[in-house]
Design a protein that fits this description.
By secondary structure, this protein is an alpha/beta fold. Helix content is 36%, strand content 14%. It contains twelve helices and twelve strands. The strands form three sheets. The protein has a five-stranded parallel sheet, with helices on one face. Strands 7-6-10-9-8 form a five-stranded antiparallel sheet, with helices on both faces. A two-stranded antiparallel sheet has the order 11-12. A hairpin with a 4-residue loop joins strand 6 and strand 7. Helix 1 crosses helix 3, helix 4 packs parallel to helix 9 and helix 5 packs antiparallel against helix 9. It is elongated, with a radius of gyration of 55 Å.
Length: 433
């Protein structure tokens, strides 16, 4: 039976570990002889030099600053069942075996199984771990409708967790399964679910979700190999305002993880074989470097390009000509010319009509002069009109005038009128009367 040694600086930590074990492991006094050692962070330094290199050490301390020798770091906030599962998996050296999923029992499960199979077929073209990782992330985002997804590979030997995309970057990837939901799933083989990442004591943002926050929902699904070890961790992250991961989504993710197993087995074998070949080449091994390089060359070439080089710039030239033609049709103006007999009508000429008929005696303007309002353009012969005017004026103002006289007797005011006596003959009037 697996054994555990407890080395703590206070009794409360020791009691907590005893309660969590609940008889699942044998407690021994000699730390070097135990399968797993649970030690407080302040007690780790004095006993490190007495531990064998292969000893598994679970430290009760801060997961953000894990010690070098730590296999995993826990805190006092861990529930007993989670600590028990972790210690048992590390002590035995084997994750918990997961029973196979039962076949679908209804139409909804059948549709989910079909979706998982269809999604897993996209991984058939993956020739390396980097391609497999990027394709898996795209599948998870589409399959479970999550905001972010990660595929972390796990090495059981040195407990390293890494991303091929991040490993190829400048900073590299030196993460280990010393904490987080991903580390717990890697050691135990148990699915780790957090409805709110910040409230789960196992959560470690640097490992689980570097681009998320403490309010997100997470699920970490281990991917087993044919040897029974965990080879990868699939992590899906969803915003806190969205719904939690339900049973149907958990089963869908588990089915997809089972379908990924044979692909990861093949890539794992290829990865280890390439590492051995690289090591042999570095030490002048069995095969020559030229032969290894030739074997590593891709067996397929680039797309055959039969189009000439001028075709690309000719295409853009045609596009430019088309755009210029459209602009000319919209904004350009083309003059038109005609020949032959034609009638020209001036649209700017205005007819001036006299109100009375008569002969024109004089024209007051010349062609091209500017005429304003009130300008006299021409004069007509007005002999008849003037004679008529003179006759009417004479009749309206007669030549005789009526004069007024005053009596010898003084009066207040002279009276004038037709009855007034006058020295002039009766009937003779002034024109101004």
């Amino acid at each position: 039976m697996s054994t555990v040694a407890i080395v703590t600086s206070n009794y409360s930590d020791e009691e907590w570990v005893f309660r969590a074990i609940d008889g699942g492991l044998v407690v021994v006094d000699s730390a070097p002889l135990a399968d797993v050692i649970v030690v407080s962070a302040d007690c780790l330094g004095p006993i490190v030099e007495h531990l064998p290199p292969e000893a598994s050490v679970v430290v009760v301390g801060d997961p953000m600053h894990p010690p070098e020798r730590a296999t995993h770091v826990v805190t006092r906030t861990w529930p007993d069942d989670q600590l028990r599962a972790l210690l048992h998996a590390i002590a035995t050296g084997r994750p918990r075996s997961v029973p196979p999923l039962p076949p679908p029992t209804n139409a909804s499960e059948a549709r989910d199984a079909t979706r998982a199979i269809t999604a897993a077929r996209k991984l058939a073209a993956a020739a390396d771990l980097a391609t497999c990782e990027s394709t898996t992330v795209e599948i998870l985002v589409e399959l479970l409708e999550v905001d972010r997804a990660y595929c972390l590979y796990y090495d059981h030997g040195d407990h390293s967790l890494w991303s091929e995309a991040r490993l190829a970057g400048h900073a590299g990837d030196d993460r280990r399964a010393v904490g987080g939901l991903a580390g717990f799933a890697a050691h135990t083989g148990v699915v780790a679910i957090a409805d709110q990442a910040g409230s789960d004591p196992r959560f470690l943002g640097e490992i689980d979700d570097p681009h998320g926050d403490a309010t997100d929902r997470l699920i970490a699904q281990p991917v087993f190999g044919s040897d029974g070890d965990v080879h990868a961790i699939l992590i899906c992250a969803r915003r806190g305002r969205r719904g939690p991961f339900g049973p149907d989504e958990q089963n869908l993710l588990a089915r997809f993880a089972l379908l990924v197993t044979p692909i990861l087995d093949q890539l794992s074998i290829q990865h280890h074989a390439q590492a051995i070949l690289d090591d042999e080449v570095g030490h002048d091994g069995l095969f020559r470097r030229e032969a290894v390089d030739a074997q590593a060359m891709p067996r397929w070439g680039d797309v055959v390009r039969v189009s000439p080089g001028w075709l690309s710039w000719a295409y853009w030239l045609l596009v430019l000509l088309l755009a210029t033609s459209v602009v000319f049709v919209v904004l350009g103006r083309v003059s038109t010319y005609s020949s032959g007999a034609a009638i020209i009508r001036s649209s700017s000429r205005t007819s001036v009509t006299a109100r009375t008929a008569g002969n024109v005696t004089t024209v007051e303007v010349a062609p091209g002069d500017r005429a304003e309002l009130g300008t006299v353009i021409a004069r007509l012969d007005d002999t008849d009109e003037r004679a008529t005017f003179t006759r009417l004026e004479r009749e309206f103002h007669p030549s005789s005038a009526i004069t007024c006289s005053t009596r010898a007797t003084p009066a207040p005011m002279p009276r004038c009128g037709p009855r007034a006596t006058s020295s002039t003959p009766r009937g003779s009037r002034s024109a101004s009367g």
